[in-house]
Specification:
The complex is a heterodimer of chains A (342) and B (446). Chain A has one domain. In chain A, 68% of the residues lie in helices and 7% in strands. Chain A contains 15 helices and four strands. In chain A, strands 1-2 form a two-stranded antiparallel sheet. In chain A, helix 5 runs antiparallel to helix 11. Chain B contains 14 helices and 17 strands. In chain B, helix 9 runs parallel beside helix 10 and helix 12 crosses helix 13. The longest helix of chain B has 20 residues. Chain B is globular and about 70 Å long. In chain B, 58% of the residues are buried. The chains are: A mainly alpha (342), B alpha/beta (446).
Chain lengths: 342, 446
């Protein structure tokens, strides 16, 4: 029982990441009709926003101590972050909370990246076949990750959570089980709640604002909205930016869970596309539901008891579920009629 | 005056001759096969081929290997401060190249993919005339390239490869390894683990699902079970699993009190990070402090895991903080040239370049069989690992093995590991027949 509870919890943060990436993918597909294979790269760029902010906050004042030498004979460098030298404890706190602080910076940065990407490249492929969209966006993803690698190197870069958020939540004690048996890291729980918050905000934005109403109308019938004199292209550009923000924030908050490297976007991209297909192309609710469902199932498939029955199931479970869902419900869990059908 | 005429018969003959010429594999028509042995150097230079990951997940490690090779070539040709040539027990090399020829080099990108590594090695042999191939950061790649070098008739001086198989069941006469292997890691770690954690322990293995992971798991299980430890489970994980939390959570209630992470590189960083996040480093099980072990440490990779490595045991081939004269000379040369200390990958690659050059000088030839004979059974010192021997039976170097621990109070970003034990060579030696395989005869190509 404890093991099952643990794997459910375990699937929540992973599912949160899948849901956020898939949500952005679905928004872009639903509004622009573009299959964006560079969306994983946006997740990675978000993570590297956090890395960059920490690097900037951590810029160090270097003084040479001629009385001490390094192992290779040069004077020892004494390093102190400027932010600590200037602001003392406040500076140290800023450094420690660099990941949450990065959220504030990542929002405008990712919006800008999204708008540049859409205006600079994606818009030229709106009316082109999906295969061409996939090729060009996949190429863009590779270019972006190589740029990141050339700047930050190939090794993962640690981004620890703040000290106050590094402990565990003891769900075992809370549920009346033996203490310490069902524990879950505070940061992962935070990530799950954060993903729910972002998903809620995106839905509220689309549901309760005029802008959202126009976007939803555009998703249903782009031509008619255009005939009403609304510049739907401009709004869709902003929608692309919003999808980039969602993916970027997912990346920022994921950095303490997975030390970021240039390849992390690709790791999530394929899985997120499966999530979109399982949820139903163009369905925002479907993307979120499928994200959490597949995250949890992936965790269950990694249990030793399950792997003993079906060896290797942990590596294929998501694709297996996708096949089953598509056989039973060809449009996915909550797919709309007419989307990607001819 | 003869008249040049083309009839059907001569046209067919001519076409056939041209066809045969074009169809002949370039390997036979290239300069690589045009001499007494493959790529016998004729001019004033000899070409080494450095095959390292320049792209992909191990690109940083590959870059460090390349820095070390460039430094080695500089020292062999008489440049710089001479580095470990000054401390090397063999004095055959005089700083004027090898066998009267200046060393030049070409590079290839393995991408840490066997196919790509073989293709780049093949290109360096066939097109660039490399007389020796060296480098790499993966056992799968090393075994693939070693096979290619055997077939092509050039020496392969392996880079960072830790699987037993490289000098075990997949060994080849033309291949030589300076780096240690999983058998030695197990033998070196076991006594330290016994002292630190006792003999009544239950281990849970998470293992990268490929040749090196299996080899590492097998060795650690063998030696820890000899101590009296039990193995609760040995779970295979896919390469590049990303977040390992789903593999870590079953450990929590498994009854195990030790987690062995048979992972390297990015997988090691991610699995260790997840294990620490789930509180395993601070957990108590069976009345004992839970322990995590990372059998193969890399300082470059440990930097990626940040503070998570603190207090975690592992083994390594070499570390820049060693205080022997060879290590100090190498760290000084490397640090002054590049501004930071070398990794264990850089060290093994530098040593391999020097050892090959020295063997050629002593043999007076670059012919693989001659160079191999000079390396087989060669005993040396002064290269940072104490007295070392290239064992003739399997072309594996035998030397002391370092057991390290993640440092609690690092003084810099490079200062992440501390050496806790230097396990003497006698404790990590094993019979050559134990790991199987046959060296077979040398192939000189030609």
């Amino acid at each position: 029982m404890d093991a099952i509870l643990l794997q459910i919890l375990n699937g929540l943060d992973k599912g949160g990441a899948y849901a956020l990436i898939a949500l952005g993918l679905t928004i872009i597909f639903g509004t622009l009709g573009v299959v964006n294979f560079a969306h994983g790269a946006l997740f990675m760029l978000g993570a590297f926003c956090a890395v960059s902010i920490k690097a900037v906050l951590g810029l160090e004042k270097v003084t040479l101590d001629p009385t001490q030498t390094t192992a290779w004979g040069t004077p020892l460098e004494i390093r102190q972050p400027y932010v600590e030298a200037w602001f003392g404890d406040l500076g140290a706190t800023l450094l420690e909370y660099s990941v949450p602080v990065s959220i504030l910076i990542a929002i405008p940065v990712m919006l800008l990246i999204g708008i540049i990407m859409e205006r600079g490249l994606i818009r030229y492929f709106y009316k082109r076949p999906h295969a061409e969209q996939i090729l060009v966006t996949f190429g863009l993803a590779i270019v972006l990750q190589e740029i990141v690698k050339s700047i930050f190197g190939a090794n993962p870069i640690p981004q620890p959570a703040p000290d106050s958020m590094q402990g565990m939540v003891d769900f075992g004690a809370f549920l009346g089980h033996e203490a310490g048996n069902v524990v879950y890291p505070i940061w992962r729980m935070t990530y799950f709640l954060f993903s729910l918050g972002v998903i809620g905000l995106v839905f509220a934005f689309l549901q309760f604002t005029t802008f959202g109403m126009v976007v939803r109308a555009g998703m249903a019938d782009r031509e008619t909205v255009g005939l009403l004199g609304i510049d739907i292209d401009r709004r869709f550009t902003i929608v692309f930016g919003i999808a980039a923000i969602v993916a970027g924030l997912a990346g920022v908050m994921y950095t303490p869970i997975l030390s970021p490297d240039y390849h992390m976007g690709m790791d999530f991209l394929v899985l997120s596309f499966v999530v979109v297909v399982v949820g139903g192309m163009g369905s925002l609710g479907g993307a979120v539901l499928a994200g959490f469902m597949l995250g949890i199932l992936q965790s269950f498939a990694s249990m030793n008891e399950v792997k003993e029955i079906i060896p290797g199931i942990d590596q294929i479970i998501i694709y297996l579920i996708a096949v089953v869902i598509l056989l039973v419900r060809p449009r996915g869990l909550m797919g709309r009629k007419g989307v990607m059908e001819g | 005056m003869s008249k040049f005429t083309i009839n059907r018969r001569s046209l067919l003959k001519g076409t056939a001759a041209v066809g045969v010429g074009l169809a002949t594999p370039t390997i036979f028509s290239s300069k690589s096969w045009a001499a007494g042995y493959t790529n016998e150097p004729k001019g004033g230079t000899v070409t080494f081929g450095f095959n390292v990951p320049q792209t992909g997940a191990y690109a940083d490690e590959g870059a460090d290997e390349l820095r070390a090779y460039e430094l080695a070539v500089e020292h062999i040709n008489g440049g710089g401060d001479g580095g470990m040539l000054n401390t090397f027990s063999s004095k055959a090399l005089k700083g004027d190249g090898v066998n009267g020829k200046k060393v030049v080099f070409v590079t290839g990108d393995t991408q840490t993919k066997s196919d790509a590594a073989r293709a780049s090695a093949k290109r360096m042999i066939e097109k660039d005339g490399a007389v020796m191939i060296t480098g790499g950061s993966s056992s799968g790649v090393a075994i693939a390239v070693q096979g290619l070098c055997q077939d092509a008739g050039v020496i392969f001086m392996a880079g960072l490869t830790h699987s037993n198989d490289t000098t075990g069941k997949d060994k080849r006469a033309n291949g030589f390894r300076h780096f240690f292997n999983t058998e030695m890691s197990g033998a070196a770690l076991a006594p330290v683990l016994k002292n630190a954690f006792g003999t009544d322990r239950t281990a849970y293995h998470l293992t990268a699902d490929y040749t090196w992971g299996w080899s590492q798991e097998g060795s650690i299980k063998k030696y820890t079970e000899q101590l009296g430890w039990k193995t609760a489970a040995a779970v295979r994980t896919p390469l590049g699993a990303g977040d390992f939390s789903q593999y870590i959570t079953p450990v929590l209630n498994s009854g195990a009190d030790v987690l062995v992470l048979n992972h390297y590189g990015r997988d090691m960083v991610n699995s260790l990070t997840a294990a620490v996040q789930f509180g395993l480093r601070d957990k108590q099980v069976n009345g004992k402090d839970f322990a995590i072990v990372v059998p193969l440490y890399s300082r470059l990779m440990a930097q990626g895991a940040g503070e998570n490595v603190k207090g975690i045991f592992g083994s390594t081939n070499w570390h820049w903080s060693l205080q022997d004269e060879g290590s100090k000379a190498f760290v000084k040369s490397f640090g002054q040239k590049y501004g930071f200390p070398p990794s264990q990958a850089a060290h093994t690659c530098y040593c391999q370049a020097l050892l090959y050059a020295d063997a050629c000088q002593r043999a007076g030839t670059f012919m693989p069989s001659g160079v191999g004979a000079a390396l087989e059974g060669f005993k040396f010192d002064g290269l940072g690992n104490g007295p070392t021997e290239y064992r003739a039976e399997d072309h594996q170097c035998f030397k002391d093995v370092l057991v390290v621990k993640g440092k609690e109070n690092p003084t810099s970003k490079f200062d992440v590991l501390e050496v806790v034990e230097v396990t003497p060579r006698s404790q990590v030696e094993y019979p050559a027949s134990m790991l199987g395989g046959e060296l077979g005869p040398y192939n000189n190509g030609g």
